[in-house]
Amino acid sequence: MKNIFRVVGFLEGVSYLLLMSLGLYYKYALNDPSFVKGLGMPHGVLFMLYLVLAVVLKKEMQWNFKTLGIVCLASVIPFGTFYVDKKYLK
């Protein structure tokens, strides 16, 4: 389960960075929202999967609620999922 969470966390982090960088650039600088539309749904699915897996993994990893909160909060901070991988999953 931990390895699945690591892969989902990596993909969620990459999709978030692409959405916030290239997606916003294309949408506002080039007036082309297609990149945001194309990446928005996969990122949303990965985000929800990340949160569900974090809650499921809480018991296996013996996280307290503070740690679970940090892991979940990291999903909305750029590069946050990479921090969680390095600090809590290795």
Automatic annotation (TrEMBL):
Key words of the record: Cell membrane, Membrane, Transmembrane, Transmembrane helix
Keyword Ribosomal protein: no
Coiled coil, from the record: none
Segments crossing the lipid bilayer: 7-26, 38-57, 64-84
Matching InterPro entries: DUF3817_TM
Pfam families: DUF3817 (PF12823)
Primary location: membrane
GO annotations of cellular component type: plasma membrane
Compartments where found: Cell membrane
Domain of life: Bacteria
Domain DUF3817: 4-88
Membrane topology: Multi-pass membrane protein
NCBIfam families: integ_memb_HG
Identification of the protein by name: DUF3817 domain-containing protein
Organism, as annotated: Polaribacter irgensii 23-P
